Amino acid sequence: MSDFHEQVKGQLTDSAAALFLPTTRPVKRERRARRMRPLAAIVSVGLLFAAAAFAASQIIGVGAPVTPSSSQERPTKTTGVGVPVAGSRRAALSAQLLPISVADPAGGLRWGIRLVRTTRGLLCVQVGRLLDGRLGVLGQDGEFHNDGLFHELPAAVLDPYTCSQPQDSVLYRSEGLAAAGAMPGPARSCLYPGASPEDGSRLSACPAADERLLAFGLLGPNALSVAYTTAHGVQTQRSVGNHGAYLLVLRQPPVNSQTLAAQAGPLLDRFTPGMLLDRYPTLGSTSSPLGRFPLETGSAVIAAAQFRFGKRTCQSGSAIQPGGGSPCTSRIARIPNFVPFIQPGLHTSVHVTSRPAGGGYELELTFRAPASVFDASTAYGAQLSMPAGSACRHGGVSGQSLERDIHRGELAHISVFIGRPAGCAGVVRGRVIYGRQPDGFTGPVGGETIGRFAFNLR
Question: What domains can be seen in the chain, in order of their start residue?
Answer without folding.
Answer: 95-183+206-333 (no CATH), 351-457 (2.60.40)
